[in-house]
Design brief:
Elements: H1 10-21, H2 24-36, H3 40-68, H4 72-79, H5 87-118, H6 127-139, H7 141-160, H8 162-190, H9 195-203, H10 212-225, H11 232-237, H12 246-274, H13 285-294, H14 300-333, H15 338-358, H16 373-400, H17 403-410, H18 421-443, H19 446-453
Helix pairs in contact: 1-8, 1-12, 1-14, 2-10, 2-12, 3-4, 3-10, 3-12, 3-16, 3-18, 5-7, 5-14, 5-15, 5-16, 6-13, 7-8, 7-14, 7-15, 8-12, 8-14, 9-12, 10-18, 13-14, 14-15, 15-16, 16-18
The structure holds tryptophan.
Length: about 450
């Protein structure tokens, strides 16, 4: 373990892990999912999912990673010798590469919009103009591929510098900046006339709006947002120090991630309502609606630049963490150098990411199971592999791993008093796997069929 990297400080470890969790999932997906699923009721269920499934599964991944200080494959081999469970690392690597591929396309859009904002290209036009602009951009074969590739190269530059000089340093700078910017945006949003309506939409739940579909959407969102199930957190926790408290780190990450999602809601909805827009715009909310709103505001130019910069910071710290899953594997299991491993990861992501970027234009007719490559990667990884990974980790730590290992890791070999062992194990054994199976069936479309019959 000695030649393996470790985060220098506890703050650095937390910043990197929060950096992984906080991403497009919080600032892009959470607001539009909330908008489409009726607001506060969705948020209430989301919070419940974070508490009863999110935190336990984070802790489960942390236990496996920090106990072994290894990548997912090595960790499973060490903790379950002879059980041949390391096949699961293949799923983690494949799924993480699928996620980077479609995720970096959206990151590419963000960089395009950042450059547009800087050059003043976002400062005039109606919502219709912005929707034409967005449509023209995503279908343009060169620009969207170009930005996806450039984004992945920036990602590579951080990765190849390694854990401390690359990942930890970037997170230490970007995370505080992200929080400050978010707060500035929230204050601005709350000062708009009629902001109260947006706040009401976010915080006064109409529990009759809860349908199974809302509940399931909230669960899927919680998993994606917390970077769960694909050993991303396992990999980062393998760089934690033995003196870190896993329960504390897990709750800090869950709280900060949730806080960012809620702040993103406060940043967006009051403005949306105040400018007479509707919240159900879906994925294009931040690319079509917000630019139209910014340019009507005083200081709109600066707001637009800062907003896309905020998104850029949030997304790159997440793609770094997705890449680290396979980089740790390539370098430890296949004995590649850090640079070779980062290059291999980036190379694969560039090929698949470019194909995903083209899914909106020239390859829009190329479909598998009726989905473009972009949609297929999103669907398979978020709806199928992620929940599957969640079940894997909760069952592995809840049922297979020796109870004494769990207690030992949670208490740092008896040095810390941990009172939550029992409820945690209960959640891992029963609550998490059963709830996730429901999400899983939903991903397969089975819940939809049952709901239709009801
Ligand atoms: N949590 C990140 C977000 O909210 C995305 C992410 C990073 C992720 N690493 C992951 C999702 C691993 C699933 C698995 O944007």
């Amino acid at each position: 373990m000695s030649e393996r990297g470790q985060f220098t400080t506890r703050i650095g470890a937390i910043a990197a892990t929060v950096g992984s969790a906080v991403g497009l999932g919080n600032i892009w997906r959470f607001p539009y999912e909330t908008g489409q699923h009726g607001g506060a009721a969705f948020i209430a269920i989301y919070l419940l999912c974070v508490i009863i499934m999110g935190v336990p599964v984070i802790v489960a991944e942390f236990i496996v990673g920090r106990k072994t200080h290894k990548n997912v494959c090595g960790a499973l081999r060490e903790l379950a010798p002879g059980k041949k469970l390391h096949w699961f690392s293949g799923i983690c690597i494949a799924a993480s590469i699928m996620i980077i591929s479609f995720y970096s396309v959206v990151c590419g859009w963000i960089v395009e919009y950042l450059t547009k904002a800087i050059s003043g290209g976002l400062s005039s036009g109606s919502t219709e103009d912005y929707s034409t602009m967005f449509g023209a951009f995503v279908t343009n074969p060169y620009r969207s591929v170009l930005w996806t590739v450039l984004f992945l190269l920036a990602n590579y530059l951080v990765l190849k510098r390694g854990l401390k000089k690359g990942i930890e340093r970037v997170a230490n700078v970007m995370m505080p900046m992200l929080f400050i910017l978010l707060i500035v945006f929230c204050v601005n949003s709350l000062m708009q006339p009629g902001a109260g309506e947006g706040i009401k939409f976010l915080f006064s739940p109409d529990f009759s709006a809860i349908t199974p579909r809302v509940a399931i959407g909230a669960m899927g969102q919680a998993f994606f947002s917390l970077s769960l199930g694909l050993s991303c957190l396992l990999t980062y926790s393998s760089y934690f120090k033995d003196s870190d408290s896993l329960v504390k780190n897990a709750t800090t990450v869950a709280i900060l991630d949730t806080l960012v999602a809620v702040l993103a809601g406060i940043m967006i909805f009051p403005v949306v309502f105040s400018y007479g827009m509707t919240p159900e715009q879906g994925p294009k909310l931040i690319f079509e609606v917000l630019p139209a709103i910014f340019q009507q505001m005083p200081g709109g130019y600066v707001l637009a630049v800062l907003f896309f910069f905020l998104l850029f910071m949030a997304s790159i710290t997440s793609t770094i963490s997705m890449s680290e899953i396979s980089i740790a594997y390539f370098s430890e299991e296949l004995k590649m150098s850090r640079n070779q491993a980062s290059m291999l990861n980036t190379g694969i992501a560039i090929v698949l990411g470019s194909l995903c970027a083209l899914s909106f234009g020239v390859l829009s007719g190329f479909t598998i199971f009726g989905m473009t490559l972009f949609d297929l990667f999103d669907y398979v990884s978020s709806n199928l592999l992620l929940p599957f990974g969640g079940i894997f980790f909760s069952v592995f730590v809840g049922w297979i791993l020796d109870r004494s290992v769990v207690e030992d890791e949670l208490s740092n070999h008896g040095k810390l008093k941990v009172r939550v062992v029992k409820p945690l194990i209960f959640c891992l054994r029963y609550v998490a796997p059963v709830s996730i199976v429901i999400v899983f069936l939903y991903g397969l479309g089975i819940v939809d069929k049952v709901l239709q019959l009801m």
